[in-house]
Amino acid sequence: MPRRRSTLALAISAAVAASLALSACGSGGGGARTEGGKTVITFWQQKFEDYQQAWFKKQVDAFNASQDKVKVDYQVQPADTWAQKLKAAQAAGKAPDVQTTSYGNIPAAVTNGELAELDGLLPASAFDDIKDNVKSFVTFNGKRYAYPMLVEPSTVLYYRTDLAAAAGLDPKNPPKSWDELVQWSTKLTTPKVKGMTIASAAPDLAWSSWGLQYNACGHLPIADDWSKANATDPCYEKLLQLYKTLYQGGLMPKTPKVGYADGASYGQGEVAMMAGGSWVVGQLKAEFPNMISKTAVAPFPSIDGDQTKTTATLGGWTLTVDAKSKAKQQAAQFVQWLLAGDPAIMADFFKTSGFSKYTVRTSVDQALAGNPDASSDPFMKTISTKVVPYGKQEPAYPYDIALAFGTAVESAMKGTASIPDALKKADEKINDVIKKQSLAGTQPRR
Amino acid sequence: MALLDSNRAAASPKAPGAVPRRVGARRQDNLTAYLMIAPMVVLLGVFVMWPLAYSVYLSTFEISFYKAPKFVGAQFYKYVLESADFWHSILIGLSYALLVVPTGIVIALLLASFIKTLSKRVAAFMKVTVYLPAVVSTVIASVLFTFMYQDAGVVNWFLSLINHAPIAWLNSPQWALPAIAVPGIWLGFGITTLILLAALLDIPDSYYESAMLDGANFFQRLRYITIPLLKNVLLYLFVTGFTLAIQMLDLPLIMTNGGPTGATTTPNFYIFNSFRELTPYATSYSLTASLLLFVVLGAISIVIFRLIRSDKAVDG
């Protein structure tokens, strides 16, 4: 997922970093160099949950200590200045040798020639270990450009079992359809606690509603060959109606303190249910452990109650090697060591994440099979058996298209346009993006 | 003067023998003049003119850092000018400036007039108090006001006292812009007040005294003495205030993320957002939009200069 942290915290770091970025574009730049006989490669990691930074640091140190040919210079970059800093580094010819890239950003980067092809750099066996459904996420025209690290579904329903029971609802039988979701939200809303929370701002809605867009219509608001928009399909009206009912009915906070990716409102007991990514499990375990016993997860309700329909997209992160890197082989060596090497390394990662993210390699699954924490985790079991199998890949089209649809949902929620008008506007906007960015026929072929 | 003398001498046909020497002197004078402005010209050239010219050149390409840039001519100018979102952001910037600048100046003028009437010690205290918001970082102010605007925040608590339902200040399209304008005014009025106070103190008291003898009331004094004599300062405050306010980025970035439904997407925020996309299209588009914003800002400044004509103060 591209937008992952508390909006406020991010915005603060953004404002500070943005002002610094102007004067310090070159600082912290990448580019391989030689130092004391070692090849130094730069690794940029987008800032995620705190435990991830600690984990990456530990592993980079271990890699550096494990051999004496390559030294990894590890740098953490804030999420919402990532694009600016990366572009500045690319312009200066100092792009990092290795970087974290989300599945959604791979296609555009490949089209622009930014990523090195990994087939020649990593042994074929490394790719054989990747699960079949994830293989396609990193493959374009039959070539591999990224090594996947994890997948995480974007939308899961979290709910408070104690509040449900108190409101006379059966905690063992969570809402399955959108109608039931509205009923639950209504019953759970009290003067102090809102029944539900879900994204309400266009930048969040843009990506967090992908799963529900699939759920409502079975497709995204664009033709498969990216030749024209498809946002006026009447099935989308039901989706916008759901958001509108939750927002205008006062069933969710109207001024949320945090963005979609942050589960703090739920953790602090301000809402009884939450639509959130699987990563919130990790946040609850780390920051709000007393909520764990009162929380259950379920697949997000479906338009008609059919829980085998997609409700979430599978986002996630990979490591990529820069096409202009002067030390591609050494960069690939690090990627292989970290992501494709000893399964115990990645097993450690998933354990550290509180099993809030999901494996992409068969061997890591085997390494975790014997771990009692993994097999007994109630959240992991529900998410991996009831959500992940029906999850779809994130779309590869430009963010502008996602934002156009997100804006339509927000307009409907906040009453600035009627639902059909909002969708019509999104449709026009998407067609405009297709025309100006010459997208027709450029959809990635796996 | 030396330059004028040498010109006159050079023009005189009666002093043929003196010409070469005086031309030499003129050249030397000119050289000194050029040398003195050279550092500024070089700095402006290197840091302003050349980057600007190069940006205009670059804006005719779809820039890629990995592939050869593709020449597209004025295509991106067309795209930006055609974009309803771009014009919408300019409109938002103007609305924000209209909310912030005149209100800020009126408040500042009232405060400055009030401080002027105070004793020295109280005035010193008031000046510090009024200036305090100016040293608060925008980031901190944004966070502070975001908390005040929450559903259960202090602003809605005041509303509850008059039995009004809470308003989603930052999340309702009609309230969001005024809501972020309040911290905008709060952050800016300190320095405006001090500048106006200095200008007010510059107006000789005798003007007011004679006006009062003639029976002018407060508003007449304000209309015929204070405002005309503050004209240049007000012009400065309006022009700098407007150009700064239209370019506001931090408040919408932190408080509303440009939302809801684009209600607080100021021009700079719009450009910043379009730059976040990692495609070559986005890079070129945001570059072109910045250049066009530069044109728009220049045009607005010209309009303000035209509206308030700058004069030399009567008093000198």
Automatic annotation (TrEMBL), chain A:
Protein name: Carbohydrate ABC transporter substrate-binding protein, CUT1 family
Keywords: Signal
InterPro entries, per database record: Bact_solute-bd_prot1 (IPR050490), SBP (IPR006059)
Pfam families, alphabetized: SBP_bac_8 (PF13416)
Signal peptide range: 1-23
From TrEMBL, chain B:
Membrane topology: Multi-pass membrane protein
UniProt KW keywords: Cell membrane, Membrane, Sugar transport, Transmembrane, Transmembrane helix, Transport
Residues of the ABC transmembrane type-1 domain: 86-304
Record-linked PROSITE patterns: ABC_TM1
The keyword Transport is assigned to this record: yes
Residues annotated as signal peptide: none
Entry-linked CDD domains: TM_PBP2
GO CC list: plasma membrane
Compartment list: Cell membrane
Disordered: annotated segments: 1-21
Major place of residence: membrane
Stretches that traverse the bilayer: 31-53, 86-112, 124-149, 175-201, 222-246, 285-308
Family per similarity comment: Belongs to the binding-protein-dependent transport system permease family.
Name of protein: Multiple sugar transport system permease protein
Organism in which the protein naturally occurs: Micromonospora avicenniae
